[in-house]
Amino acid sequence: MYREEDFLQLSGIQHFEFCKRQWALAYIELQWQENIRTVEGKILHENAHDATLKETRGDIITVRAMPIHSREMGVSGECDVVEFHRATDGISLPRKDGTYKVIPIEYKRGKPKEGDMDVLQVAAQALCLEEMLCCTIPYGYIYYGETRHRTKVAFTDEIREKVRKIFLEMHQYSERGYTPKVKTSKKCNACSLKDICVPALNKKKSVSGYIDRMISEEEKE
Questions:
Q1: Where would a tag sit more exposed on the chain, N or C end, judged by fewer CB atoms within 10 A?
Q2: Which bin fits 216, alpha (ψ -120 to 50), beta or left (φ > 0)?
Q3: In this structure, are strands 60-70 and 139-144 parallel, antiparallel, or unpaired?
Q4: Contact indicator for 80, 49 with CB cutoff of 8 Å
């Protein structure tokens, strides 16, 4: 069990899966830079995270900006949206009749991606909710702003184990204050931290080697 002061931000799991260096720059070195993708994503999340927009429609209760945490994984954050669907095999809710099953919904600006970044984030939310509410959550959804469509995500044993392993690795990096190097790829072009990271420099030799070369060149002149 982790102490609250050691909790990591849950949302960091998508950055870590995308690029460990990006995550370390943003969450360990506290460097950040906006681009069009992050701005559009922030606007979408502002609408989803309006905690004043709570509603009950029929057998569905919708809660926005729900704070969540996990002492086992050492993370905390917010769910964009959590829907509670009335069900005979669900859990009880304060001041509500009946029982409900829990469904987390994550909002994303673009469209479904090839990697697991978005899946891991909503799965991490589900694990937190399971720990907090003492329930089992078999699936959730990701809503994509570009397609305006929900994609169903099954929380398999494989995905659950991957979430736990990633958070463990994130804690190890955080405790060491370690920012890893990165292998350049096409995804670097879309990264909001490209100018801070300067990925091309990581392909060169070490700083000490660079200084030695510069001194040698000056001695030759």
A1: C
A2: alpha
A3: unpaired
A4: yes
Report the length, in residues, of the chain: 221
Residue 139's alpha-carbon distances to 4, 21, 128, 207, in angstroms, are: 27, 30, 13, 48
CB 103 within 8 Å of CB 83: yes
Least Cα distance to 79 among 102, 60, 98 occurs for 102
Strands 99-108, 139-144: pairing kind: parallel
CA gap 129, 136 in Å, rounded: 9
Euclidean distance between CA atoms 160 and 184, whole angstroms: 29
Query: Which structure tokens are listed for 101?
Result: 């099953």
